[in-house]
Input
Amino acid sequence: MSHRAGRHFLQIPGPSPVPDSVLRAISAQTIDHRGPKFERIGHAALEGMKSIFKTRQDVVIYPASGTGAWEAALVNVLQAGDRVLMYETGHFASLWKKMASKLGIRAEFIKGDWRGGADPEQIESYLRADKAHEIKAVCVVHNETSTGSVSPIAEVRRAIDAAGHPALLMVDTISGLASIDFRFDEWGVDVAISGSQKGLMLPPGLSFNAISAKALEISRTGGMPRSYWDWREMTEINKTGYFPYTPATNMLFGLIEALRLLHEEGLDNVFARHQRHGAATRAAVREWGLEVLCRQQGQESGVLTAVLMPEGHSADRFRATALQHYDISLGNGLSKVADRVFRIGHLGDFNDLTLAGTLTGVELGLRKAGVPHRKGGVEAALEELETPIFAEAAE
Ligand SMILES: Cc1ncc(COP(=O)(O)O)c(C=O)c1O
Output
């Protein structure tokens, strides 16, 4: 394809666009990861991530995609044959369950319809029925990237406690962290999993576990045979600012810059910005006469919006048209909702004008692809941005 002028709109729900200063930080000459200069980098990255997870407990960083950190979470605290409770929020919850099963874990699903987050009441009754306390962990996806629904993690914790159950709470916040509120310590999470390519505004390649003292204690004598993912060696060596194997040095340069940007904006402002852009996107979708996949009020994601196509119209054909004519990448529908849904990413390094451009790209794409819709979605989104509660947050 010949050169296309102007910036490509990367509006999938991760990887998200990377700020220029983060790209510049990554492009610095690499350094000796065992040399004296690295110590400060290692400490800054690890401490910085604690501030994002909102924890004083341990955080580890892997040179791996989110899937690696999923596996690390499971193998450090669970054994083959253990029962775990998972909640079917969508495609990513299903993939995590598949991984657990491959590892010999007996993963049980509370069925979901992919149109909302996890239901704490159902989790509580499931745990109450487990009188022998065989279930070792409850695993929930915070922001389900395939559907645009958010699970109420603090309420899931309360449900576990109300059932008087000792199961660990493990949370995938791969696409939630640094875009929507997440409080590891306050919410009593035991293991959280995240990745670099979403709210942290980095390219793919880093992933994280935040680990409670309880989970770390279990991992000392429990878990499965493991080496690369082992928290024990990692957390010991991390205390010195170094890693047991070669870390992704340049990605850590980028991470430190991304953390600086997030704190300069202020995490609460970052969260409010995402909420605002989510609400404006939903206003556009409603005006187009299309349907938002998440139908649980209050659980709609500020990270992405999944949109149902009208019956008989292909989401993938529409996305291909939008890419070809307007140079915008939109997220595809995954597994159960393949070709039925497209996803608009509004996360990371993103502002009101990028939202306006994104929604304009969607509206033009709908028109070009002959998808039935009403005009005026972009206008509705702009009006939503001006509503007083959101206008204040933007100031
Ligand atoms: C919620 C969620 N979990 C897990 C993953 C898998 O992460 P990765 O593709 O980085 O391995 C993703 C990726 O998009 C995700 O959004």
About this structure: The mean pLDDT is 97.
